[in-house]
Design goal:
With about 180 residues, this protein is mainly alpha-helical. Helices cover about 40% and strands about 10% of the residues. The chain is built from 5 helices and 5 strands; from the N terminus they run αββαβααββα. The longest helix has 20 residues.
């Protein structure tokens, strides 16, 4: 039973998943032009440097590893949200009231690879300026990657940050590190 349940069954399940789901069975791995693994379509990542679109705060952020466990009445959470709001507003050159909620808080799992289309659009000017490319080009890259609501009515429009930043690789400019 140990061999059947511990070796044979897992190998059969793995083989069926590979045949049925291909790349999705391996975690939706994303590779660069040289075949190097650079991420997953399913997991959020942090991008350093002002020439990249930024993700939501989350577990990929060494300063905030995973959900904080802080409730809506937490003074600590409120201070952190206000700190993030001021930092994003300054980086993007907008009033604090224009910073979307997903720029301030992580997703429930802390691993969401998406940001709202509003947060992506807010970052267009900074990214274009830092990369030395036309604002309109960066805006078009965002608009081409906006995913609609699930089933047409659930959630909000969203953009996969990894896919958007991969598209920026075609326009290297002065993007900074990753």
């Amino acid at each position: 039973m140990t061999v059947v349940c511990g070796v044979v069954y897992p190998l059969v399940v793995w083989a069926v998943a590979q045949a049925a789901f291909g790349d999705r069975a391996d975690g939706s791995a994303v590779r660069d032009a040289d075949g190097r693994l650079i991420g997953s379509d399913l997991l959020g990542q942090d991008f350093d440097g002002p020439g990249w679109f930024r993700s939501r705060p989350g577990s990929y952020d060494a300063a905030a590893p995973g959900p904080s466990g802080l409730g809506p009445d937490s003074a600590v959470l409120l201070r952190e949200v206000e700190r993030r709001r001021a930092a994003v507003a300054e980086a993007e050159g907008v009033p604090a009231r224009e910073v979307p909620p997903d720029a301030l808080t992580g997703s429930g799992s802390g691993l969401d690879p998406h940001i709202s289309s509003a947060y992506a659009r807010l970052q267009v000017d900074r990214v274009a300026r830092e990369r030395g490319v036309a604002r309109e080009l960066v805006r078009e890259l965002v608009e081409a990657r906006v995913e609609g609501r699930v089933l047409g009515f659930l959630g909000q429009e969203r953009v996969n940050v990894l896919e958007l930043n991969r598209a920026l690789l075609l326009y290297p400019g002065q993007g900074g590190g990753r």
